Amino acid sequence: MSIDTLADAFYNELRDIYSAEKQLLQALPKMAAKASSSELRQAFELHLKETEQQIDRVERAFEDTGKAARAKTCEAMKGLIEEADGTMEEDAAETVMDAMLIACAQKIEHYEIATYGTLCAWADSLGYGNALKLLKQNINEEEMTDEKLSSLAQSINKSAMAVH
Ligand code: FE
Ligand code: FE
Ligand code: FE
C-alpha cells in the first residue's frame, strides 16, 4: 500500500500501535511475574487490564478510517520487549531488578505516549472525532501509568540503594 495522504499515514500508524499493544499484552504478565514489589506487580497487572481495553479502543478507532483493523508489526515495541526480556534474564538483587523493570516499562510507556500523541494530532486534523476520543483515553492511561511508575520508583530506588 502506498501512503499518499495523511489519512493513509494515520491508518499506517494505527496499525503500528495496534501491533504494539498486542505485543505488550503478551509481555506484561511476564513483567508482573518478575516483580518482587507487590505494588509494582499490581501496577503491571492493572496495566494489563487497561491494555486489553486499549486494544478494544484501537479496534474501534479503525472505524473512522473505513478500513479493516489489521496489525502491522511494530518493530520498535518488538525491540523494547526484547530488551526487557534480556533484563529479566539478568542475575540481579530483587529490588535492583524491580528498578530495572520500571526502566523497561517506562521506555515502553513513553513509546506509546509518543505514538498516541501523533495519532491524536492526526485524528484531530482529519476530523476523526470518534477515533480522537478513543485515542485520548488511551494516551491518558499511558500517562497515568508512567506517573505511577515514577512514584513507585521513588521507594524502590531507595531500597535498591541499600543493596551492596
Ligand atoms: Fe498501551
Ligand atoms: Fe511502532
Ligand atoms: Fe501502556
Would you give an account of this structure?
There is one protein chain. This protein has five helices and no strands. It is mostly helical and 164 residues long. The chain has a single domain, classed as Ferritin. The radius of gyration is 17 Å and the shape is elongated. The model has no long low-confidence stretch (mean pLDDT 97). The site of one fe (iii) ion has 6 residues, from helix 1 and helix 2.
Name the poorly predicted regions: none
Straight-line distance between termini: 55 Å
What ions, cofactors and ligands are bound? fe (iii) ion
Judging from the principal axes of the Cα atoms, what is the shape? Answer: elongated
CATH class label: Mainly Alpha
Beta-strand segment tally: 0
What's the domain count? 1
CATH topology: Ferritin
CATH homology superfamily: Ferritin, core subunit, four-helix bundle
Provide the residue-averaged pLDDT.
97
Query: What is the CA-based Rg, rounded?
Result: 17 Å
Query: What is the helical fraction, as a range of percent?
Result: over 70%
Structural class: mainly alpha
Largest sheet: none
